[in-house]
Amino acid sequence: MEIWEEIAADADAGAERLVAEFGDRLFTAACGMVQCEAEAEDLVLRTFERTISKIGQYDGRCQFFSWLYSILLNFRRMDLRRKGANALVFDGEIPETEDPAPNPAEALSLRNDAAAVRAAIARLPETLRAVIVLHYFEDFSLAEIAELTDAPIGTVKFRLHHARNTLAAALSQTFHDKTASN
Fold first, then answer.
1. Do 122 and 94 form a contact (C-beta atoms < 8 A)?
2. Is 104-181 CATH 3.40.50.300?
3. How far apart are CA 67 and CA 51, in angstroms?
4. What is the full DSSP assignment across 80-108?
């Protein structure tokens, strides 16, 4: 049984499955949008509540997580409008990923490299940061990003291209400085 069918049939059991299957992933995404974990938890909770109450509106035209993510983004946009902001902001750090390394020196080097990449992403303007996070960290297609951000696909392509070039320039300097000092 698909998750949306389970939620429609039994909201309590469906809610448990919803949290188990999508809780961590939505929380990670929310942490990328807000400054603190409490705000992220609130966004995720409201997303789950809305999902359960509006499950009949899910029509299956997109992946279920894309639908969840769009609800999360809509809540974030509403919060920003209430605060007087008009842009989608990814304030938090990009979540760390585990980097397997055969020895401690390489592991330290990889962690430092990952931290440099996260820092470079954090310095991007919010519109560029959003497409990088959605595409590379959340695995959304360009069409899905266009739909989620209410931007034409051409704009999304341009932002992704510009973000990659900006990151490449920033990281080439960072890694050039690193190799020069070794």
1. yes
2. no
3. 9
4. HHHTT--S----SPPPP-----SSHHHHH
Say how far apart CA 156 and CA 150 lie, in whole Å: 10
Instruction: Output the pTM of the full model.
Output: 0.56
Minimal CA–CA distance to 51: which of 69, 38, 31?
Answer: 69
Residue-wise pLDDT for 152-181, tens only, equals 999 999 999 999 999 888 888 777 665 556
Kindly state the tokens that stand for 85: 């902001």
Compute the distance between CA of residue 156 and CA of residue 151 in angstroms, rounded to an integer.
7
Q: How far is CA 111 from CA 2, 43, 116, 129, 173, in A?
A: 38, 29, 9, 21, 18
Does domain 3-82 fall under CATH 3.30.70.890? My reply is no
Name residue, tokens 């946009």.
77
